[in-house]
Amino acid sequence: MKILVLKESKSNEKRVAITPLVAAQFIKQGYTCLVERNAGYDSNFDDESYKNEGCIIIDKTDGLQQADFVIRVNAPSAAEVSAMKSGTILISYIYHLFNPELVKQLAAQQISAFSMDAMPRISRAQSMDALSSQNNLAGYKAVILGADVMGKIFPLMMTAAGTIKPSKVLIFGAGVAGLQAVATAKRLGAVVEVTDVRPETKEQVESLGGKFIEVKGEGVKVEGGYAKEVSDDYLQKQKEAVNKSLAQADLVITTALVAGKKAPVLITEDQVKLMKLGSVIVDMAVEQGGNCELSELDKTVVKHGITIVGQSNLPSTLAQNASELYAKNIYNLLMHLSSKDGMKWEFEEEITKGTLITHQGKIIHPSLISAIA
User: Fold this and answer.
1) What is the model's pLDDT at position 207?
2) Is 137 helix (H, G, I), strand (E, B) or coil?
3) In DSSP terms, which residues pair with 71 in a beta bridge?
4) Is 196 marked active-site?
5) Domain residues of the chain, as ranges?
6) What is the pLDDT of residue 273?
7) Cα–Cα distance measured from residue 254 to residue 141, given in angstroms and rounded to the nearest whole number
8) What gap in Å lies between CA 173 and CA 197, rounded to an integer?
9) Which is nearest to 88 in space by CA: 63, 54, 121?
10) Segment holding 78, helix H or strand E
11) Please, what CATH class does the domain formed by 2-128+318-372 belong to?
C-alpha cells in the first residue's frame, strides 16, 4: 500500500503531514512512502532526510495517480481531489461543516475521507487528537506573540532602580490552548486569570496557578468533549464578570471556538475601550471570525490604543514541532483503522464513525447527512 505525503499549498502553511521518522515507522509496517518533492522543507525536513529513511521522492501528479492513501495537513484542493484515484483514502483536516462543496466532490470522486478535526474527544483517541496536539503549541505561541508586542515584561523584577510589578494576563477559554497559555504565562512570571463557560475547568486552571473567574448561572453543556453554544444571557453575565479583569489586563488571549460554527464574540469594541493604553489582545479564534470584534485576519492592528494580534495558524509558526506531533497523530490513527490485512472499516466503532466523512460515493458522517446529502 502506497502512502503519499503532499506538500501543503495553503498560504503561510509550513507544516508537513508526515516526518521522516514517522515515515520510517510506516515503512516498517509494510507501507511504501511517497513524498512530494520539498514537502517537508519548510518544517526543516529536506528530501534527503526522507530518502535516508527509505521514502521515494515524487512529483505530485505521479504521486496522486499511484497513492492508496493521501496524507495532508489541510484539506485538498479541488484539482487534487480530481486527480486522486477512485477508492483513495484521504486523511487530513477537512472541516466538513464549513466545506460542503469539497465533501460533495470527495463523495463523487469515490474518496474515503477521514477528517482529523472530527476526532472524538475520548480517552483512547487522545494519541490521535490532532486538534489537541496543535492547539497545545498554539497556546504557547500566543503567549510568546503577546510578550513580543507588549511594552513590558511578565515577571516581578526588583532592581536598584525600583520594583517592576508583574504583568496581568487574562485568558478566555480553558481548553487545551488556554491551559497551555496559562502554564506558559505563569512560567514567565505573570499573574494569570481565566474565564471559561465550563465551570468544571476551574480545577484545571487553579492547578496551573491561574485564578478562575466564576460566572453566576448555568454554564455550557459539553457534548463529545466540545463546548456547545451558550445563551446570550450567559454571555452577558460573563462579560460583566470579566470587565474588571479586562480593564486591568496587560495581555488578553482568546481561544473560544464552537465546533462547526463562527467563533463567539467575547470582546466588543466597547470592551476594548475599557482596556489600558498599550494592552495587547491575541485572538486565537480569528480564522473562524474572531473572539474580538475588532480583530482582522492575519493582521496586527491598533484600535483605541490596544494592539490586536490576529495571526491565524499559530501551529505553522512552530512547524517542526507541530509536524512531529501531527505525524504521530496520523500514524496512531492509521494503525487503529487498519490491520495486516488492510483497512478494518468498522463503521460503528466510535473513532471510525467520528472521523469518516465520505465512503464509496456517499456522505456518511452523521452531522452531514441531513445537511448536505
Assistant:
1) 97
2) helix
3) 5, 91
4) no
5) 2-128+318-372, 135-317
6) 97
7) 13
8) 8
9) 63
10) helix 78-83
11) alpha beta
* Selection from 319, 317, 324 nearest residue 20 by Cα: 324
Query: Does 2-128+318-372 match 135-317 in CATH topology?
Result: yes
Distance of CA 52 to the CA centre of its chain: 30
Choosing from 43, 132, 133, 323, the catalytic residue is 132
For cell 500514524, the residue is 331
Give the phi and the psi of residue 97 in degrees, each rounded to 5: -75, -20
| Selected catalytic residue, list 31, 226, 234, 248 | 226
Q: Which of 330, 360, 319 is nearest to 116 (CA)?
A: 330
Q: What is the mean pLDDT of each run of 10 residues along the chain (373 residues)?
A: 96 96 97 98 98 98 97 97 97 94 96 97 96 98 97 95 96 97 98 93 96 78 57 78 94 90 93 97 96 97 98 97 98 95 93 96 85 50
From 31, 46, 121, 245, active-site residue: 121
121: annotated active-site residue: yes
- Does residue 338 carry a catalytic annotation? no
**168 grid coordinates:** 496581568
Q: Which of 126, 207, 231, 360 is catalytic?
A: 126
- Residue 233: its pLDDT value, please? 79
Active-site residue 129, yes or no?
A: yes
Residue whose cell numbers read 509536524: 323
CB 85 within 8 A of CB 65: yes
What is d(CA 246, CA 234) in angstroms, rounded to the nearest whole number? Answer: 18
* pLDDT the model gives residue 373: 44
- Judge residue 274's burial from the number of C-beta atoms within 10 Å of its C-beta, 0-12 exposed, 13-18 middle, 19 or more buried: middle
The C-alpha cell at 176 is 487545551
Distance CA 241, CA 226 (A): 23
Distance from C-alpha of 70 to C-alpha of 67, rounded to nearest angstrom:
6
Q: Look at strands 362-363 and 356-359 and give their pairing.
A: antiparallel
DSSP-assigned letter for residue 262: P
Q: Grid coordinates standing for 11?
A: 498560504
Cell triple for 85 = 484515484
Instruction: State the CATH architecture for 135-317.
Output: 3-Layer(aba) Sandwich (3.40)
Cα–Cα dist 328/325, whole Å: 5
* Choice among 50, 93, 117, 129 that is catalytic: 129
User: What cell numbers appear for 367 in the block?
Assistant: 452531522
